[in-house]
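User: Fold this; tokens only.

Assistant: Input:
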Amino acid sequence: MSIQLSRRHAVILAAVVATLAPTLALAQAKPKVAGIYTVPFEQQWAGRLHTALKAAEARGEIEYKASENVSNADYERVMREYATAGNTLIVGEAFAVEAAARKVAKDFPKVSFLMGSSGKPQAPNFSVFDNYIQEPAYLSGMIAGGMSKSNKIGMVGGFPIPEVNRLMNAFMMGAKEVNPKVEFSVSFINSWFDPPKAKEASFAMIDKGADVLYAERFGVSDAAKEKGKLAIGNVINTQAQYPDTVVASALWHFEPSADRAIKLVKEGKFTAEDYGQYSMMKHKGSSLAPLGTFEKKIPADLVAKMRAKEKAIQEGKFSVKVDDNQPKSTTK
């Protein structure tokens, strides 16, 4: 009797396991994620994507591979290789390869794409994101405007595209709020990663009287350090490398976007949507870096004004205008 009962239980157990096996395998499978970047991992923007995905990999949530320094001409080929290699989520930037990237997404409808883009989502599988960090950029502008003694601020950007323009414009609005007299010199180096060129552009601005520099690109803070001027960081916090130079930084956190995409891919619910909102402060997609070495060097009343504005943003009582137009120099 006991033998028959145990056999019966064994049969039932085997049936249950057989039924659940596909579900368990699906739940346990790690999504294969690929990152494709046209710049080095160390570059600010791509670095934020890479860091967020490496963190998910470290938590055991995904398998992750990435390619850096992929040329625009080679981008489509690399996308197709990753798509055919079984990756279920591809992350990267489509700014200069928009048509090609969207074509690849159409050809691989079962692969999920999360791409930096100025365009709209493309059903069913092409989601877009952007670094909407204009809120902390405004706050860092307030610090810059209050710290400038010459009332002249230099701003060096990569390309005058919406993703850069909105941060510069927000920064300028913040600076103007606390210092209506401040003037701006604006320059674009037409490169996402050319520190020597950004450095030379910064030197030219310093020679014209700028005592605070907005470091949208690498190289700007080096110039500020050499000339004993101040700098405001962007996307990442470089104060540890420039403790006497970088006053404040507007930080971008890609984790909310990456984590959402990974979760949806795992659940089989990934659709084409705009992830832009997940870069904003209310979703913890951006923040102002700790003032650190400048905590005691910035006037207390200036910090109080900035913190009050930060609180108003977080509570939804103040909205930073999104202005994607190319910023212009205002120096006379």
